[in-house]
Design brief:
With about 110 residues, this protein is an alpha+beta fold. The chain has two domains: about 1-35; about 45-110. It has one helix at about 5-35; strands at about 45-50, 55-65, 65-70, 75-85, 90, 95-100, 105-110. The strands form two sheets. A four-stranded antiparallel β-sheet has the order 1-2-7-4, with no helix packed on it. Strands 3-6-5 form a three-stranded antiparallel β-sheet, with no helix packed on it. Strand 5 and strand 6 form a beta hairpin. The longest helix has about 30 residues, at about 5-35. The radius of gyration is 26 Å and the shape is rod-shaped. Keywords: Membrane, Transmembrane, Transmembrane helix.
């Protein structure tokens, strides 16, 4: 039969093992969820209306470098992305994923 002292040591050892396992599991989970964080940005939006069309221009003054997904409105036509060197680098044919170095970016599109 186990002595009371041995049961206490065994219980403490098991609690220590469970604590380490939970810590490493949570650390891995939180590192993965940080990659998918949505960051808010400051932007200026200009809207003009001519001939039954809305002309939208979004200016983002400072954007850090990286890959971004642009969620265009469903009815958006004539999509343009301009950076300080004129054209953004699209990473797909649908013009929804863009690679930005850093700095100012301008998005233009029309809605009919």
């Amino acid at each position: 039969m186990l002595r009371k002292k041995n049961v206490i040591y065994l219980t403490l050892l098991l609690l220590l093992i469970i604590s380490f396992l939970l810590y490493f599991q949570w650390d891995g989970f939180s590192a993965k969820s940080d990659q998918n964080k949505i960051h808010s940005i400051q932007q200026d939006i200009f809207i003009e209306h001519h001939n039954n069309q809305f002309y939208i221009k979004q200016i983002i003054p400072s954007l850090s470098g990286g890959n971004y997904t642009i969620d265009w409105p469903q009815a958006a036509n004539n999509r343009e992305c301009l950076n300080e060197n004129n054209q953004c680098q699209w990473t797909n044919d649908e013009k929804t994923n863009v690679k930005i170095k850093s700095g100012k970016i301008t998005l233009k599109y029309t809605i009919t």
